[in-house]
Automatic annotation (TrEMBL):
This is Murein DD-endopeptidase MepM/ murein hydrolase activator NlpD. It holds the Pfam family Peptidase_M23. Keywords: Coiled coil, Hydrolase, Signal. Residues 231-254 are annotated as: Disordered.
Length: 409
């Protein structure tokens, strides 16, 4: 079953507006990493199909990268959320500053009207003062009153007139102060708006970059998940047939072991069953061990599987030497082992020991033939369940497969 992450909705939305061209981390590194793993897997599991080994290697590579990709995607999403928040907050601050600017402009206009009104009154006072030869009408009134020429003659009326004129002058000066203050505030707000606009524009750019990055990281993550899921699906599809193939190989291995055991029993019945000095030598001396004897979990079936011998990285066409003195029990074609040679070394320190040489291009001996340690018995190859030139060398102790290395090193 394939699974896709329902990643951040924004990523899907952004896909509509953003360019979609994001290179993977380093494809060449990935390729060589997978190639190396394919070789490794094929060495570890002889006969493992190359395409399947590649699928496993790709699955493993994707799996290995997943935690980092998940973390990177999460970080990018968090950064995007932060950038969106910052953008919104900048926009809000800008709107609020613009509203304040509008209010101040209105206040200043209203104030200017007030000033104009007060100015008119003040001008009238000024004119009166001029007409009264340099003294204000209030003072003139006072003089008239003192001289008893005032029409209605009350001191209260003079007082009221003076107060009213003083109020006009006070209001004018107060309104001027208020407007001066508002002008200063307006200039401050206008400057702030200019700064906020720059910051808001930066926030938009940062948000867009964060969107691109989040989308890129989400795509990488989804690609990995898809690759892993596709690989898992292929592996799962091949599980049953691989199990069947391994079962057949195991049956063949058991059958061949049984044949050797029967042969050995026959020899023991005959009595004398010692062929050499009891010392065995490496049949592929100088070549590296590419896969040791032992149990390992099969990458497709998930079951433990015995690697029944030691693999040596021997090129095809290399002469293979008998590990010790003995008699050839079998030589020729088998299924999974390809061209195989089995040599019995008789009793060594109380145990019945035989050695086998597998995947050969050619066998150079025939059953029943006596061989000496070091004799060429076959030519190496990659026949049977094998995907590369090598020698699969086995030691059978009392009819069972054991680690060959302690016998030959
Ligand atoms: Zn092997």
């Amino acid at each position: 079953m394939k699974r896709r992450l329902g990643l951040v909705i924004t990523a899907a939305v952004l896909a509509l507006v953003l360019p979609v061209n994001f290179a993977a981390a380093d494809p060449r590194d990935d390729k060589s990493q997978v190639d190396d793993r394919v070789k490794e897997l094929q060495q570890e599991f002889e006969g493992l199909d190359e395409d399947l080994a590649r699928v496993i290697a790709e699955r493993d590579a994707a799996e290995e990268k997943l935690p980092d990709a998940e973390a990177a995607s999460k970080r990018a999403d968090d950064a995007l959320a932060e950038a969106i928040e910052k953008d919104a907050s900048m926009a809000a601050r800008l709107t609020s500053a613009e509203n304040a600017q509008k209010d101040l402009k209105t206040s200043i206009e209203d104030g200017a009207e007030e000033i104009d009104k007060h100015k008119t009154s003040a001008a009238r006072i000024g004119r009166q003062a001029y007409q009264n030869s340099g003294i204000t009408s209030d003072l003139a009134m006072l003089l008239q009153m003192a001289e008893g020429t005032s029409a209605d003659g009350g001191i209260g009326r003079v007082d009221s007139a003076v107060r009213s004129q003083q109020r006009t002058i006070d209001n004018l000066s107060e309104q001027r102060a208020v407007n001066k203050n508002n002008e200063e505030r307006l200039s401050g707000v206008t400057e702030e708006i200019s700064d906020l606009k720059d910051e808001a524009a930066e926030a938009v750019v940062a948000k867009e970059a964060a969107q691109v990055d989040a989308k890129k990281k989400a795509d990488s993550l989804n690609d990995l998940i898809s690759a892993k899921d596709d690989a898992e699906e292929t592996i799962s599809d091949n599980k049953a047939s691989t199990k069947e193939q391994l079962k057949k190989e195991k049956e063949e291995q058991d059958r061949l072991a049984e044949k050797v055991r029967e042969w050995e029993k026959e020899q023991e019945k005959k009595g004398k069953f010692v062929y050499g000095d009891g010392e065995l030598a490496n049949p592929a001396k100088g070549y590296p061990t590419t896969s040791p004897f032992g149990y390992r979990v099969h990458p497709i079936t998930g079951a433990k599987k015995l690697h029944s011998g030691t693999d040596f990285g021997v090129p095809c066409g290399t002469p293979i030497h008998a590990a010790g003195d003995g008699v050839v029990v079998g030589a020729g074609w088998t299924g999974g082992y390809g061209n195989r040679v089995v040599v019995s070394h008789g009793k060594i320190k109380g145990d019945t020991i035989a050695s086998t040489y597998n995947h050969n291009t050619k066998v150079k001996v025939h059953p029943g033939q006596k061989v000496k340690k070091g004799d060429v018995i076959s030519v190496s190859g990659t026949t049977g369940a094998s995907t590369g030139c090598h020698l699969h060398f086995e030691i059978m102790k009392n009819g069972g497969y054991v680690d060959p290395m302690p016998y030959i090193s």
